Amino acid sequence: MSRAPRLPVAARAVVAHDRRALARLISAVEDRDPSVVPALRALYARTGHARVIGVTGPLGVGKSTLINRLIELLRRRGLTVGVVAIDPSSPFSGGSVLGDRIRIERALGDDGVFLRSMASRGHAGGVAAATREVCRLLDAFGMDIILVETVGSGQVDVEIRDVASTSIVVLVPHLGDEVQTLKAGLFEIAEVFCVNKSDLPGAETAARDLSDLAALGTDRDGWRPTVVSVSAQAGAGLETLWAAVEAHETYLDGDGRRARGERRRLAQEVVGLVRERVGRELGRSVDRDRDLGALLDRVAARAIDPYSAADRLYRELRRSG
Predict the structure, then answer these.
(1) Is the domain of 299 the same as that of 168?
(2) Per-residue pLDDT of the chain (321 residues; tens, 9 = 90+)
(3) Closest C-alpha among 95, 100, 156, 147 to residue 124
(4) Per-residue DSSP letter, 153
(5) Residues 199, 235 within the same domain
(6) Maximum separation of any 2 CA atoms in the chain, in Å
(7) Of 255, 271, 296, which residue sits at a domain end?
(8) Are 144 and 270 in a shared domain?
C-alpha cells in the first residue's frame, strides 16, 4: 500500500496552524522566492474549501471599517477569517503605503483571524501578483472566509474577479455621477453593491439609482447585482450585506457555475505562470544568447520591427520546445 508523500517542513507547519510559519511563507510568496514553490505545490490539494470574497471601491468609502465589522459578524458565527489587504506601493521602498494591519483591527488573542497587508508593487488592477497564492495558504491554514481588500486608487480593480468568487463594490452617497460607474466597468465586477454611510443624506437616492442601473444592465451568468445599504461605522445593515454575499455563493453552487468560474480563473493563472516563467528566461537570455542579442540589435537599428522579431522568436521557442 503506497503512502502519501511527506509534506515539506514549511507546508507541515501551515497545516499545523503555525502562524509564524504562515507569515514567513507569505513573505516568501510576496518576494517571489522560488524556494516556496514545493510548499505551495504540496498544499494545493488541501485548498478549495475557503470562500474568497473581494471588497473593492474608491478611497474613502470605508472599506477597512466595513471589513472590521464583517470580521466581528463572522467571528460571532464561529467562522475563521483571513484578510488580505492590498495597499498601493511606496515608489521608494516598494512596501505598503497605507498599512492595513494598522487600519484593520483584530481582538488580541483571537487566533481565528489572520491579517496580512501586502503592497501591490505596481501591479495593475489593484490585486497583487501574489494574492492567489496567499489566499491558498490561508485556505490550507484552515480559514473559512478570506476577505481580499484591493487598492482603492479610484480605478476599478477588475482583477479581483480572478481571485474572488463574490465581489463587493463599496460606494458612498455623493461619490459622483453614479451613471459613470457603468463606464468604469463596476458592473463587470460587482455581485453585490454596498452603499456605505447610509446615514448620510442622499444614501437612499444612491441605492435607488444603483438598483435602477442594475435592472437595466445585462445579467452575468444569470446573476443581477444586489444593492445593499449599510452604515459600517454604526454597525447597521451588516447582516443584510452578508446575506447578499451568501445568496450569491449559494447561486454559484447550482448548475456547475462555481466549477466553471474556478476553471476560468485557473486557466488564467496557469497561462500567467507560463508567461512569467518564459519572460524570466528570455530576460536572462538577452545577455547570453548571441542570436537573440543580434535580433534585438536589428530591431534597434530599425532593420526589423518588434512584431516580426517577436514572431521569429516565438517560432524558435516552439521548435525548441
Answers:
(1) no
(2) 445 568 899 999 999 999 999 999 999 998 889 899 999 999 999 999 999 999 988 888 899 999 999 999 999 999 999 999 987 654 334 444 444 444 566 655 788 999 998 876 555 544 667 899 999 999 999 999 999 998 655 444 567 888 999 999 998 887 655 445 544 566 778 899 999 999 888 888 888 888 887 777 667 778 989 999 999 999 999 999 999 999 999 999 998 999 999 999 899 888 888 888 888 877 777 777 888 888 989 999 999 999 999 998 888 777 776
(3) 156
(4) S
(5) yes
(6) 69
(7) 255
(8) no
Are residues 238 and 106 part of one domain?
Answer: yes
Question: If you search the block for the grid coordinates 456605505, which residue do you land on?
Answer: 196
CATH no. for residue 200?
3.40.50.300
How many structural domains compose the chain?
Answer: 2
Are 269 and 242 in a shared domain? no
Instruction: Read off φ and ψ for residue 221, nearest 5 degrees.
Output: 55, 30
What strands, in cross-sheet order, belong to the sheet with 145-149?
113-119, 81-87, 145-149, 51-56, 166-171, 192-195, 226-229
CB 173 within 8 A of CB 203: yes
* Whether residues 219 and 310 fall in one domain: no
Domain that includes residue 250, residue range:
47-255
Q: Report DSSP state, residue 158.
A: G
